[in-house]
Amino acid sequence: MPETCDVAIIGGGVIGCAAARALASRGRTVLIVDAADRLGSGASSAAMGGILTQTEPSCLGPLSAVIKHSRDLYLGWLDELTSVSGVDVPVLQGGDIQVALDETEMRRLEDEVLPRWTGSPFEVVRLTAAEAREREPMLSEAVIGGFLLPEELALDPMLLMESLTTALKAGDLPIRVRTGAAATRVASTPGGAEVRLRDGDRIAADAVVVAAGHHSPALLPSHRAHLFPIKGEAFDTRPPGAKGYPLRHHIFTEYRDGDFEAFPYLVPRHDGRVAMGVTYEPCVSDTTATAAAREQIMRGVAALMPEAATWPVVRHWAGLRPGSTDHMPIIGHVDDHARVLAATGHSGLGITLAPATAELVATLIAGHPTPETRPLLDICRPDREFVPPAT
User: Fold this and answer.
1) Rounded average pLDDT over 191-218
2) I need a labelling partner for 69 at 20 to 30 A (CA). Which of 19, 171, 356, 379 fits?
C-alpha cells in the first residue's frame, strides 16, 4: 500500500520546507521527500544569503512585485520561525552597496541599471566615492561611486535552514519527512496524485509540490526545456580578530579587466565571517569546488576591497541554483488535473522568495487565490511565455 498524505512535497530545501510549514499550519498533512540525507543540504545551504530586492537583473522586471511581497513578509516570517524553533537568525539590515570601479561601470549603472532601479518598488540612494568609503572604509581607492540599496537584507542560510527545519518538528504540525528517498516520477488523475520513489515505494496524495531545485526537470517533463542548473562557487573567510559583523553592508560590483570579468560579492556574517562569491556557470551540474573559481573570485575581491583578499579562507563550496530561462520561478499547476504544482526555478532567489512562494503554494492548494496573491501567481504561472530577462 502506498504511503498517504494530503500534500507530498518533493524537495527539502528552503522552498519545500517553507511550503510544508505553510500548508501544515493550514491543517494539511504533509510529507517531505528529499533525496539527500538531510534537509537543506543543496542550493539552500550553498546560498550567499542575500535577501535581494534589486541586485539581480531578474529582480527589476515583472518579478519585482513578488519580491516586494516576500520582502514585506520576511522579518515577520523569521520572527515566527525563531519563536517556534528557538533558533535565532540574525539579519543584517544595512542594505547592499553596489559600486563602480571605473568610468565604464559607472556609466553602465547610471544609464542601464539606475532607470530600472528607480522603476522598482524599492529605494535607491546614490553615493559618491567618499560616501561609499565612509560607509565601508576598506573599499578600494579605485571606487568612483555607487548606490545603496537599503532594503536588501542578508543572513546566514545555514542558520535559516536550521531554524526552519527545527520549526517543522516543533509543536503538533502534521509534517513527516523522508530523507534519502529519491522521487523518480510524478503522475496525476482527477482524484489525486502519486509519487514513485527509486526504491519502488509509492506515495499517494491529494496534491504534489515539485520543489526539487535543480532536480526538478526530471519530474516536470512539460517544463524540462525551461529549467537548468547554474553552478556557483563561494567561500567563507574570517578576518583576523573579527567579532560581530566585519562589514556594515553586503557589497557587490561587476569588475572587468580586458577579457577577465568577475562579480565579487561580500556578505558579512554575525559571527565575524565574510562570505565571498560568486560565479555563474549555466548548465553545469557538478558541485566540485575549483581552484579556478577561487582565483576568479579572489581577483575580483582584491579589486573591490584589497584587504579582504588577504583574509584566510575557512570553507570553499560549490552549489547548483535551479535556473529558469527567464530567471523567474515557476509556481503553479503543471498537469491537467490541478494536482501537481511546480515551485522551482528560482534562479538564485530561493532564499529571497521563500516566504512568498510558501504563501502562493498554500493559496493554490487551498483553491482560493486572494486579490493580493492572484497577480503574483500570474507572474509566476507555468504557462507563461519564457523571455530571457534584460541584463
Assistant:
1) 97
2) 171
Amino acid at 44: S
The 3-class secondary structure across 222-264, one letter per residue, is: HHHHHEEEEEEEEEEECCCCCCCCCCCCEEECCEEECCEEECC
Torsion of CA 92, 95, 96, 99, to 10 degrees: -130
DSSP 160-191: HHHHHHHHHHSTT--EEEEES--EEEEEEETT
- For cell 503522475, what's the residue? 187
Measured in whole angstroms, the distance separating CA 295 from the mean position of its chain's CA atoms is 24
Quick one: which of 158, 347, 165, 348 has its CA closest to 269? Answer: 158
Q: Are strands 125-128 and 183-189 parallel, antiparallel or unpaired?
A: unpaired
**Domains annotated on the chain, with CATH:** 3-83+157-225+326-380 (3.50.50.60), 93-151+229-324 (3.30.9.10)
- 70-78 long-range contacts (CB < 8 A, ≥24 apart) are 70/352, 70/353, 70/354, 70/355, 70/356, 70/357, 71/122, 71/151, 71/153, 71/352, 73/355, 73/356, 73/359, 74/153, 74/355, 77/354, 77/355, 78/155, 78/160, 78/163
Q: Are 54 and 152 in contact (CB under 8 A)?
A: yes
* Residue entry with cell 575557512: 314
The x, y and z cell numbers of residue 297, run together, are: 573570485
Q: What is the pLDDT of residue 391?
A: 57
Q: What is the mean pLDDT of residues 193-220?
A: 97
Q: What percent of the chain has pLDDT over 90?
A: 94
Per-residue model confidence (pLDDT) at position 171:
79
Between CA 263 and CA 88, with CA 309 as vertex, the angle to 5 degrees is 75
Taking only the tens place, the pLDDT of each residue in 134-183 is: 999 999 999 999 999 999 999 999 999 999 999 999 878 999 999 999 99
Residues sharing a CB contact under 8 Å with residue 138, sequence separation 6 or more, in sequence order? 247, 305, 306, 307, 308
Task: Give the global pTM.
Answer: 0.96
Residue 310: per-residue pLDDT: 98
> Does position 332 have pLDDT exceeding 70, yes or no?
yes
* Distance from C-alpha of 28 to C-alpha of 51, rounded to nearest angstrom: 28
